[in-house]
Amino acid sequence: MAKVISQDTFDDVVQENVVEFSMTPSEAKEETIKQFEAQGINLANIIKDLAINPQSGKPVINETVDQIKEYIGQKAEDNTQLLEQLALLESECSKSLAHRVLAGKNGAHDALITLLEQTLSTDSPNDALIKKCLEAVISLTNKQPDLFDAEAMAVVLKLLSLKHENEEREEITLLTLQWLQKACIMHEVNRQNIMNTPALKLMKPLLSKDKPLLVSELTAVFRFLVLDDDIRVEFGSAHEHARQIASEVLLNLVELLPVFEDPNVLADLLLTIGVLAVRQELCTAIDEAGGLTTVFQIMSINMEEVRLNREALKLLRALAGHDSVKAHIVQQGVAPIVKQLLETHQTNDNIVSAALACVTTLTLRVKEHSEAFFETGIAEVIVEALRTHPKHKIVQRNGAWAIRNMVSRSRNQCETWISFGVEDLLNAAMVEHPSVAQDIKAALRDLGCSVHLREEWTGKAEKKIAN
User: How far is it, in rounded angstroms, from Cα 428 to Cα 406?
Assistant: First the structure.
């Protein structure tokens, strides 16, 4: 069994080489590594790229945390040195997860939370100090959500309650929302704890038509609160969180759609609305609020925007889960827009696959919807998309789905599809992508083409069934 040592032991030897033997930090680390490896020690658990103070020989990150702790309880008017230390901690934590873990073990999180509490408890909080503390704690919490605790949540609530008296206060709110995002990723308990506080009610008033940056950060928090990515938890509360958030802010988000022109902000809003639309009554509420008309207008105006249209297509697909809303989507003229998107972004596999998936959902088991799409001439555009992306499995699969749903109840379309050469394309895709062969066979079957359906297994009875 290989021998191992602690990080402290390694750092002590590096310090000794710097102080006692006047080595440079790089020489000291190199000598220390050689020394331990010669003794047969496994250094896989050691952080070897820590920045070292050339005077003291100690890791900079450890010294920085210790110096920050010294400021706790002090009421010095000049915080210049503290701000520098906080900036240095943020810089060190941004280097790697190992650096952040080491800082957390040395008490960096508790020190930052205490500093924030201390600053917020004063009559006139120091905005510059709060910003630096938040930048450091965001960097520290990145991929380390376990650090976020009840004390941190209490600080977040205080920060969200601050009045926006100046630009710095708005920046503080933006940083606070980014901190919440880091705390939500891969941590179901944190998400549930956040939802059990008044945080949502404090965030709702921040949805303002005058503050696009705030809207983008807020929508990101809403999306992260409905993640289901924590493997440590058997059952998450993503659906319930989505319902709670939607009941508070969904209509506000829909109302903000016509307000903004920035494609990125619009994409964030569309994505968030789609994520929150998890129940039929929510889909209906979006439709009744005029959401469909607004989405179509946004897509038509921003036809060249890739991300925005991808999110719009996903939203339409989510809303189409409700049959009556699906009918409204087609009746209000989505077919020409989808066709134009496919033509405009023929070479973009992301848009093409999203558009084909949208066609698949909207034409499922509804002959009238299939005819509405077919009348726009979309068949030739879909075939051309398949021809353009022969190596892309998702495009080929979604294309097969779209074709199958369009022709399954409208056999009169088959000759048109075949005249565009779709049979050869699907047969080639079946050879190229065997994992989606069954989907492609379904399309060929409904097109009336020759297809070999293999019997996977034949059941045999142990006893003969009497007539």
Answer: 21
